[in-house]
Amino acid sequence: MFSFAALALFMLKYPPKSKFFENDNNRKMLYVPAILIIAIITVLNFLQPDGSSSLNTILRLIFGVIIIFYFGLALVTLIRKYMNANVETRSASGLNHMVLGAVIGLLPILIYFTINTLSPKTIIPGNDYIFLTFAAIPIFFVLGLLKHKKEQ
User: Fold this and answer.
1) 84-92 long-range contacts, CB within 8 A, separation 24+
2) Distance CA 118, CA 82 (A)
3) pTM of the model as a whole
4) How far apart are CA 71 and CA 93, in angstroms?
5) Domain of 53?
6) I need a labelling partner for 109 at 20 to 30 A (CA). Which of 4, 35, 74, 121 fits?
7) Residues in the chain with pLDDT < 70?
């Protein structure tokens, strides 16, 4: 969970630094959902209740909402920074690489989940390997960081 929180924190701190950090409490509040889910999992691990389907459904829902929150925050922040930057800034700060990595990493998975939601029985060729596109995100983020560091 903390890796998703770290991704959101990274995007908020990436130049230009977000106004979100003007208040010191905001940074701490960013970790509250991750700490909450870890606390729930820890308590359930020690109590070991019967694995009812409703408990499993609720936990899956909470996990999904928290992950979507962090990914959504990171993606919206990236898109806002990209839209507010001029062409030179986009290139110099590596935002072009970061957006490309986000598109390559997330678009196939978004298509996969959309198709499976609309038609669960549909067999998609290569669906076992679709999650490998996630690797594009850190690769292109590193390329963007290297470009940003080189320009400084």
Assistant:
1) 91/147, 92/147, 92/148, 92/151
2) 31
3) 0.77
4) 21
5) 1-84
6) 35
7) 51
